């Protein structure tokens, strides 16, 4: 890997503080945080894996088009799915309650798609993608347990209405895959993709 010359900017195409903190765990601090402003509505009959990949790619492309300096853009999208059903981000207590009722006692999948894209000014970078799948099973939630999760407020803005790193952790009996991917950024796969880029991102 060529480590000569100034390193390009690392731009995170997300406003998520969780993703910033996860990057810090592997020794990376984004030079810029540029949330992507895109339409996140699933297309008709779009499958969850297709949707997650498309969202991450569109976020990366949208931000790459705004950067006029040598930069590598990192985008991610996390989707909670029951079969072919994409669960929404919980923007209200009622939505969070509906998600938790669906997930209670059931196995579901958390899909996190990664997209790394160079800006036009960074000719040594290359586009790279990865989809990480994690199986999660909630215990069967009593009404009191569900309401306690709702009262905690961890559900706000979270896909599927829960946060693995929050109070829900005490009620999740099985995780197979990437715990950091459930939180929003699979660190092993992110590090792999960054190591494959020019610029000396990670050793």
Automatic annotation (TrEMBL):
Coiled coil: none annotated. InterPro entries: ITPase-like_fam, Maf-like. The record marks 18, 78, 165 as: Important for substrate specificity. Its EC number is 3.6.1.9. Its main location: cytoplasm. It catalyses: UTP + H2O = UMP + diphosphate + H(+); dTTP + H2O = dTMP + diphosphate + H(+). Keywords: Cytoplasm, Hydrolase, Nucleotide metabolism. Its cofactor is a divalent metal cation. It is found in: Cytoplasm. It is an enzyme of class 3 (hydrolase). SUPFAM superfamilies: ITPase-like (SSF52972). It holds the Pfam family Maf. The keyword Hydrolase applies. NCBIfam families: maf. HAMAP family: Maf. This is dTTP/UTP pyrophosphatase.
């Amino acid at each position: 890997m060529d480590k000569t010359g100034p390193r390009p900017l690392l731009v995170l195409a997300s406003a998520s503080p969780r993703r910033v903190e996860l990057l810090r765990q592997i020794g990376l601090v984004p030079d810029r945080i540029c949330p992507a402003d895109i339409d996140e509505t699933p297309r008709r009959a779009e499958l969850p894996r297709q949707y997650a990949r498309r969202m991450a790619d569109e976020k990366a492309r949208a931000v790459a088009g705004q950067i006029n300096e040598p930069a590598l853009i990192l985008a991610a999208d996390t989707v909670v799915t029951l079969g072919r059903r994409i669960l929404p981000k919980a923007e209200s207590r009622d939505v969070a309650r509906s998600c938790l009722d669906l997930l209670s006692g059931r196995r579901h999948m958390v899909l996190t798609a990664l997209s790394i894209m160079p800006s036009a000014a960074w000719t040594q970078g290359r586009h790279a993608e990865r989809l990480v799948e994690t199986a999660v099973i909630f215990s069967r939630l009593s009404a009191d347990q569900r309401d306690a999760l709702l009262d905690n407020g961890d559900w706000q803005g979270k896909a599927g209405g829960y946060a693995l790193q929050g109070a829900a952790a005490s009620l999740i009996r099985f995780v197979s895959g990437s715990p950091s991917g459930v939180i929003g950024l699979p660190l092993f796969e992110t590090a792999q993709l960054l190591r494959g880029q020019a610029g000396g991102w990670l050793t």
